[in-house]
Amino acid sequence: MRSLILTTAATLALGTVAASAQEVRVYNWSDYIDEDLLAKFEEETGLDLVYDVFDSNEVLETKMLAGGSGYDVVVPSGTFLQRQIQAGAFQKLDKEQLPNLEHMWDTIQERTDAYDPGAEYSINYMWGTTGLGVNVDKVTEALGEDAPMGSLDLIFDPANMEKLASCGVHVLDAPTELIPAALAYIGEDPDSHDPDVIAKVEPVLEAVRPHILKFHSSEYINALANGDICVAFGWSGDILQARDRADEADNGVTIAYNAPKEGALMWFDQMAIPVDAPNPEGAHTFLNFIMDPENIAAASNYVYYANGNKASQEHLVEDVIGDPAIYPDEETLENLYTTTPYPAKVQRVVTRLWTKIKSGT
Question: Which of 97, 148, 211, 343 is geometrically suited to a Cys-Cys bond with 161, CB 3.0 to 4.6 A?
């Protein structure tokens, strides 16, 4: 989840090289891997890696459901994965080609079973929460010492948002994140598929819409880090990356991440192989490479997201494994919720609602 287009030698634009058995094409979220791993994969396997990026599930889903994506490995989030499995977009994993499956974390597997029972089609890459990124000084200046930095009041109370508008608020361009959060805020089931219940978030979102500077799913990382905005509703690892970029720049910006006390979405990004992948054998080689504990630890240490590989934890730096914003304690885990895909009719309702909110009309 994520922001920069990779520019390493391992990154090629899709279509510039004809697919071959010596090439693996991967489509992942932007700014979501340690670039050194890309070169390491090529060196260890002798395969050429084409690594392209996206920054929304909707972009990926359009490619997947249209067919002929041209990729060998893609990385949808859990709810989108489930819907795409049902649509026949993926092939089952050949687990004999994946000896590193033994390192996966059963606690995460139990949760991802809701989307892919028995991990028949996917492996977990990263997981995290969706919550509040704040520029501590600017939010305190705008709202006072008792600013609700750990509550959804921060972004859903119009009185707060009116004051925060002067320093800038970004939210994800993702209805599957914002609508459940708004439902949790008003005390409804965040996983509701009832159109009448979902409709209850419209006045909540409309009331704060005039004070939202931008809907975008990656720009808030640099905007937070540079002090250009003071609040982002976004993905945990992105906000922690913003925090660390600000620290490295020593620019006087102090960023904090909080999972809302009303509950936060726990999401999972899953690596899967399209049913029409040009090189499924190479895809399995890539998945097994990623499941090596040291490799996936390097990715987590770079992106500041938790991963679904238990054996990797001994290779994680303390800033990652010891940060409860990345690896939450049991109490916080219990307060996290998950969501399931909207049925087609409900999805149309959600899409219309989101279009209306974003346009402000």
Answer: 211
